[in-house]
Specification:
Blueprint lengths: L1 H38 L19 H11 L2 H32 L5 H10 L9 H10 L6 H5 L6 H14 L2 H9 L4 H12 L1 H17 L2 H6 L8 H6 L9 H21 L1 H9 L5
InterPro entries: MetI-like, MetI-like_sf
Protein name: Carbohydrate ABC transporter permease
Membrane topology: Multi-pass membrane protein
């Protein structure tokens, strides 16, 4: 009888957890659903009372308005190029730096690492003017290179990689590789890199989405419509006396689709990096 009661209690507890997680998932997804609904409705539905929660039939029409206002696909291409290049560079720099901070001893190691961490607490707005001045002097205004260079050094990425390498790559494995005559870069390429692939997926998603959604720096550097990223291009949709919310949210909806695709593609690696901290 005791075992039956315990099993029943455990089952009720699991059901309660699943119900809570399901409710939390629905609440998290609702803003995306509401954005889709507004993208299919006229602008007046944005302020309707009671709120409209069922999709309409203006998704294509609203998107056609977007295409009439901005070069949407050119901006999307610029954004994909920017985010992909920044993500690849950040992954390379962060993994190399994280490997060095985790497994090598050199003078000032802790001071350098502490300095990198301290940059995370500095608001990016404080450096906007000097950064703009340097990019201007380098002749990189209105270029994707000028936007990208600011994101290459990622303190969070270095911290995450250091923690992952420190916990997943045993020192004995590295010492054995050195005895076999492997160089440091060979150890990184052949031993460390395969082990930290799940962390790559996590950091890659974080960096890609962060650069995709960043607006202030992109808006400051890019003035040529040919070089607009999707965030800057969408911002120009509201520069009118009459704001068409259906058109704007239609553009935002289609600009969000690539992020959802990226997450679905790397979902397994993303979850693996969170739940798996052991050497395989």
């Amino acid at each position: 009888m005791g075992n039956v009661a315990g099993t029943k209690k455990f089952s009720i507890g699991r059901i309660a957890i699943y119900l809570f997680l399901s409710l939390a998932s629905l609440l998290s997804l609702f803003p995306f659903y509401w954005m889709f609904v507004m993208a299919t409705r006229p602008s007046a539905a944005y302020n309707s009372i009671p709120p409209t929660i069922t999709p309409g039939n203006l998704l294509v029409e609203n998107f056609q308005k977007v295409l009439g206002q901005i070069d949407f696909f050119k901006a999307m291409l610029n954004t994909i190029i920017l985010c992909t290049s920044v993500t690849l560079v950040v992954l390379l720099i962060s993994s190399l730096a994280g490997f060095a901070f985790a497994k090598f001893k050199f003078p000032g190691k802790n001071i350098f690492f502490l300095g990198i961490l301290l940059t995370m607490v500095i608001p990016p707005q404080l450096g906007l003017i000097p950064q703009f001045y340097m990019i201007s002097k380098a002749g990189l205004l209105d270029t994707l290179q000028g936007v990208a260079i600011l994101f290459f050094l990622n303190p969070l990425g270095i911290f995450l990689m250091r923690q992952y390498v420190n916990g997943s790559v045993p020192d004995e494995l590295l010492e054995a590789a050195k005895l076999d005559g492997c160089s440091n870069f060979r150890i990184y390429r052949s031993i460390v890199l395969p082990i930290i692939l799940p962390a790559f997926a996590t950091l890659g998603i974080i960096v890609f989405t962060a650069v995709w959604g960043e607006f202030l720096w992109q808006f400051t550097i890019l003035r040529d419509p040919e070089m607009y990223t999707i965030q800057v291009a969408l911002a120009t949709l509201s520069n009118t006396f009459k704001v068409d919310f259906g058109m704007i949210l239609s553009g935002v909806f289609w600009a969000t689709v690539p992020l959802i695709v990226i997450f679905l593609l790397f979902n397994k690696l993303f979850i693996s990096s969170i739940t798996d901290g052991a050497v395989k």
